[in-house]
Amino acid sequence: MAGLCGLFVLSLAVEAAVAFGILSPLVFARPSHALAAVGAVQADQGLVQAFLVTLGQTFGATALALLAGIPFGYFLYRQRTFGEAYEGWLAALFAAPIVLLYPLFLVIFGRGYVTLVLMGFIPAAIPIIMKTREGLLTIPKTFLNVGRSFKVTDRDMFWKIMLPAAVPSIFTGIRLGVMYGLVNIVAIEYLIDFGGLGRIVSEMYFRFEVPGTYASILFVILVSVLFYWGFGWIERRLRPA
Amino acid sequence: MMRTLRRVMVGGLCTALLAAAPGPGAAADKVRLLVSTRGPFEMFAPNQAQAEGFFKDENLDVEFTYAQGGAETTQAIATGGADVSVGVGILSVIAAYGKGAPIRIISNGKRGAGEIFWYVNKDSPIKSFKDLDGKVLAYSRPGSTTHLIVQTLVKELKIKPRLVSVGDMASSRTQVMSGQVDTAWASYPFNYDLINKGEARVIGTGADATELETFSMRVQAANAAFLKQKRDVAVRFMRAYQRALEWQYKNPEPAIKRWVETFKLDPEAAKQVPKFTRYETVTLAPIGNLEGNVRLAVEYKMLSQPLTEAQMKELVDIVHDPRK
Questions:
Q1: Integer Cα distance of B218 and B43 in angstroms
Q2: What is the homologous superfamily of the domain B116-213 according to CATH?
Q3: Quick one: which of A32, B41, B141, B284 is 20 to 30 A from A114 by CA?
């Protein structure tokens, strides 16, 4: 509730700032105008359909990142030598602007959804790998000792003690992954004029439709919020009480 | 006493001479120039002006920046990020002005678009624009010259292609040669080496959009506040620009040589460029068929309603007309 109130106050401030010319209307849209533009952009460009496309691509990229990232993170935890060897490389790769590889991906995978999903998958997988390993490495020794004292099997040790203890770190990685994956996907949609919301942001921007641009960006934020809430709900269920 | 008087007179004379002597030259006026796209011959005029000293003659210090065409250039001008732009698509200027942006057209850039061509991979079954139903017809970015041309081609030729923004000429070339899109665009003589080597084939040019023959496709634009506060600077800039344009066409050999060296072009192909970009089409005035351009802006949804007569009059402000 506090967050929503803060957002409302910020919106009022921006509304007033643009209305009174403190902020340029050529750069900033009044929040009321951006909301009002949603209908027009939907009628002209299919905003809702584009939202579903971007949501689907992000879901696909995140799912692939989870399928690859968590097992690989576990592998790097179990194989200490590999973990220590690749930690720096993964950190460096995470900081690199992978989005600039998009021309190469376009040539290899074509101008389609596969390219977009893969370009989202790479930046999403890296933090998941790193945070999974980190989460497993930082499990309190007490937890493991208690498990051993109860003579639990390796399987039970992993599923009932290690994984629940590592869940907060893993989900931090997932949230980071979703964020970077979504940014990459929308950026490439913008650059190649293909796909969902990024394409509409580009079209509105180039038509100088400032409210329409912000209306499209609102829907990009909505994608992010949905994933954030969704993974938050799953984490609460997986986290130990 | 006479010696003292003589000293006073010499000292006074020296002081008077020093006071009358011309002081250090006035600092040059700065112009932040944004070139919409790298490459086209007529848009190389500012570079020629810089190299030949025409800007210096007008006491101008021109700072060059390059954009990626279309609305990116217009945005920079409208928000004061640059003072003057060269070669910006007229539709994006009209769209920005129609939405209240402080931008003005200060001269024609290019009328007609015969120098822009579309090509396909040599193995493509596409022979002309008429074979493009369901296929990709590429253009650079929304609001650009190529965007205007392809939309007009669709209307005139009654074809149903998929219009796809592919970015600049280099990006367009990569995408068509790697099979990502069916067609690519370029401005002669860029990418014409593919045609000369037989690796690609031309399927049509901007001249096929016959409606646009008399239209100004690209213009020079300026920020309205810059024009109001520094009109004299704008006039001097355009005077130097005009001088460079004339120099380019009267001295094609050194002009093309410099252009070829800058963009690493095929010298043989480049020699033909004055035929494709004739001087008559790049004169600073008049603006070709502004009413037609406004009509197209409404048709292509760049404007929600046409500009009034008063607005069209305000939009165009030819700061230097060589005809007068």
A1: 10
A2: Periplasmic binding protein-like II (3.40.190.10)
A3: B141
Which of A220-234, B165-179, B310-324 shows the lowest per-residue confidence on average (mean pLDDT)? B165-179
Inter-chain CB proximity A44 and B96 less than 8 Å:
no
Cβ contact (<8 Å) for A25 and B174?
A: no
Closest CA to A122 of A72, A166, A55, A81: A72
Q: Indicate whether this model's pTM tops 0.95.
A: no
Q: How far apart are CA B93 and CA B218, in angstroms?
A: 10
Q: Is it the case that residue B22 has pLDDT exceeding 60?
A: no
CATH 3.40.190.10: does it fit domain B29-111+215-315? yes
Which architecture characterizes domain A46-238 according to CATH?
Orthogonal Bundle (1.10)
Report CB contact under 8 Å: B165, A111.
no
- Predicted-complex ipTM score: 0.73
Which residue of chain B is at minimal alpha-carbon distance from A200? B142
User: Which tens digit of pLDDT belongs to each residue from B255-312?
Assistant: 999 999 998 888 888 888 888 888 999 999 999 999 999 999 998 888 989 999 999 9
The DSSP annotation for B223-241 comes to EHHHHHH-HHHHHHHHHHH
CA distance A93 to A88: 9
Query: Any idea where the domains of chain B sit in the sequence?
Result: 29-111+215-315, 116-213
Angle in degrees, CA B76, B91, A209, rounded to 5: 60
